[in-house]
Structures are given as C-alpha cells and as structure tokens.
Amino acid sequence: MNGAASHETRSQPNGTPKGSAIVRRTNRFDPNFTQHVIDTTGPKTSPRIRKVMASLIQHIHDFARENEVTVDEWMAGVEFINEAGRMSNDVRNEGQLVCDVIGLESLVDEITYKLVSEADSAPTATAILGPFWRADAPRRDMGATIVQNIPDGDHTFIQGIVKDYLTGEPIEGAELDVWHTAPNGLYEQQENQVEHNLRGRFTTGKDGRYSFYCLRPISYPIPDDGPAGKLLKLLDRHPMRPAHIHFIVSAPKYKPIVTQVFDRRDEHLANDSVFAVKDSLIVDFLPREGDPKAQFELAYDFRLATFEDAKKYSLVGPTEEKASQSTVDGNGSRNEQALNMIGAKE
C-alpha cells in the first residue's frame, strides 16, 4: 500500500465518510438531538410510518449538518416548497414535477415495480405518471380519435392487444387511459385547447384489442415557469423530454401499469430531463398505407399481471386491488387516484 491508502474512507451507519472533514464538522453539533426528535414519535404510530419518518428525519438532519445549512438557505428551501404547492392544482402538479427533475419519481417507480426476471414474458415495463394526468378523461369508442381540434401534426393509428403476461390470453374489459401533448408541446390544460383534447379512455372487448387515432408525439420542454424550471437552471440542465405517449392500463383483478412509449427517432432518448426512458418502451412509428386518416402507425401490446402474479415482479400494496377498481370507476380526487394507481397509498 502506498501512503494515500491510509486515507481510505469508510462509511459510518449514517453514510458519512469516517475521518472526513464532514464528520469533524458535524461532531460540533449536539449528538443526541436527532435521536431525541425521532424518539418523540408516539406509540400509536404505525410501524411503517415509524420506520419511514425515523429514516427521513435522520437523513434530513444529516443533510443539514453535513452542509451546514444556514437559516437563510433553509428559508429559501421552504419557500421553494411553498411555491410548488401554490402552483399545484387539479390540472398541474408542480411538486410532482420537482420530484421528476431530480429523478425521484423514476427511482420510486423502479423500486415499486422492479422486475426479478428478465424474461420476454414479463409484464410491460412501467414509467412515471408525470404531472399532467387527469382523472376525468372521457370514454371514447374503440377506434375513435383523441384529436379534437389540432389540424397540424402527424396523425397516427395505434393498435394492439392487452393480454395476460403469463398465458398470453386477451383481457376483456381492460381500460387504457391515454394522453399526450399537442404539436406545440403543451397538454390541453396548459392552454386554451378544447377540454380533454388528446386524451381518452378505451375499453377492450373479448378479443382484448384496442385501437385509436392520435398524433405522433413530439419532444417538448417541461414547464420552466415554476420551481422545477428554476431548479433545472440552477443545475445547468436542459428541460427537454423525448417524444412519448402516456398510458395507464388497468383491468379487474390485474395490477395496473402506468407507463409511456417513446419514439425511437427522438434525439432526447439518452438524456430525458425526468429520467423516465426504458429500453423496452422505445417503439417505432411506421408509415401507414391505405388510410387517409393517418400518416403513421404503431402496433404495441400491453402485458398485465394478476395481483398474485405481480408479487413476483413488484411491491404490491395491500389495497391496490381496491385502488385499481376505484380508478377504473373514476372515483376519488386526482391525487388520490394517481397515488392509488401506482400503489403508493396505504
């Protein structure tokens, strides 16, 4: 070993390097304070909340100590959170967008739905919900268009089958909730488009087939007029998302999937500003022949797992089956349905 090896750092239980300047600085603070805060948790607290909050408090306190956060910096952070809250409503979730640009939603998605098998028959991969889903998208006839008042753009026909990932059998009564941006990169609630433009819900028949017309998606910048945009500028990062279409696919007795499909020809696939791209979700939009209503087409099948089978592939929450049905029925608020759909609500 050379002399430099004697300075090798080792991690303490809280993740800080032993012998580092960080430890020397943080040792100047009350070593018992954080544990005292954690210990004030009452006996009626559920085990899961107790575990999560103890970890959260520990990590936040360690962050403050390690970085010697000042009162002014802390207040700036509080105002950042408050601003995200003020900008959020039923049609825009700025807090979720902030989580997206730091990769948190994509990480939670990976944790929740992490596959334990790489088999081709695995359920369709998931991707983040994003901040612009609406719970009240209209039901449309199979084969109809979700394009309401956009003359521009490349009209596209999408079709496929919703099937059981194990048996390959088609799933009757599966619902597909679909949405994407207009050619100017804006979702309908971001400007004065016809309400529910480029949105729709479709329900499969006995053959499990679905089909609809939409527009070929385009890449676009996420909104930069709020905290998420300010954060990207502070980090010297671009705001672009690769071209994609959002889907929520659900069916009775099956674990819902929240996902996106991405255009293979988009230049931003490798550097999505919200880190949502997965290889298995990259698709090819092909020229469509003999259809005056569409210039492109996409064939894509969705594979769902029953709640029992899904335990092999993901973390299944205790109330997901009930939550799935409430979402299919259109009940509950946007946030409640979104949380239920991704299995994040106890």
UniProtKB/TrEMBL annotation:
Pfam families: Dioxygenase_C, Dioxygenase_N. It comes from the Eukaryota. Signal peptide: none annotated. Residues 47-114 form the Catechol dioxygenase N-terminal domain. Residues 1-22, 317-346 are annotated as: Disordered. It comes from Lepraria neglecta. One of its GO terms (molecular function) is ferric iron binding. PANTHER family: DIOXYGENASE, PUTATIVE (AFU_ORTHOLOGUE AFUA_2G02910)-RELATED, INTRADIOL RING-CLEAVAGE DIOXYGENASES DOMAIN-CONTAINING PROTEIN-RELATED. Keywords: Dioxygenase, Iron, Metal-binding, Oxidoreductase. This is Aromatic compound dioxygenase. Its cofactor is Fe(3+). Belongs to the intradiol ring-cleavage dioxygenase family. Residues 324-338 have a biased composition (Polar residues). GO terms for biological process: catechol-containing compound metabolic process. Residues 129-305 form the Intradiol ring-cleavage dioxygenases domain.
